[in-house]
Please model this.
Amino acid sequence: VKEKMHSYENDYLPEYGDDFIIPSHCNDNGKNSQMGVPFPEKGIDWDNVKWEDVKIIIRVESKEIDISINGSKQMNYHYSQMGFKQKCIDKPTKAWSIFLCFARADNNVLSLNTLKRFNVNMKLQAFQDRISEIRKNVRALFPNLPNDPIPHKKAVGYRPKFIISAIVNGIVTTEFSAETDNIDYQSKVIVNKNEV
Model:
């Protein structure tokens, strides 16, 4: 049974004690979004963690995100806690829709042309700006992880180093292993949610 999400704004996560303070809102350089809540550092050997160890599962209906490292340490976030909520109103940012597209795209690869399959139309600069916002939000969760979490490959597109998938109506739409660098790898369709 899932507990109702608690707003941790200007609060702390009780299970991690007083040393885990949630940052206050940020202005995002003029954009109207909130700052993401970092993944708790307690109990993680950050020297041995890389982006490929991070798994993100988006529950589309509830806008909740389950994040784990190496399949163990797991946190549940609401989209607003990851910086995807507009600051003044309770609506997702445009970057949220692109983040969802990553989770649903084959091999988690997105390009401007790929977005059209998801009925998302935007100009190149707007698309690049949204990718930058997603990078910023994901890096805010994992400030100890170096390198670009969403690199761009020429003639292919953007592909996160972390594993990302979406659950729609209890079914994982795509799951991709970030361990392989083979772009031709087919996404695994999961029909049994117990595999997640």
Notes: Residues 1-32, 175-196 have pLDDT under 50 and may be disordered. The chain is about 20% helix and 15% strand. The CA atoms of residues 82 and 138 lie 7 Å apart.
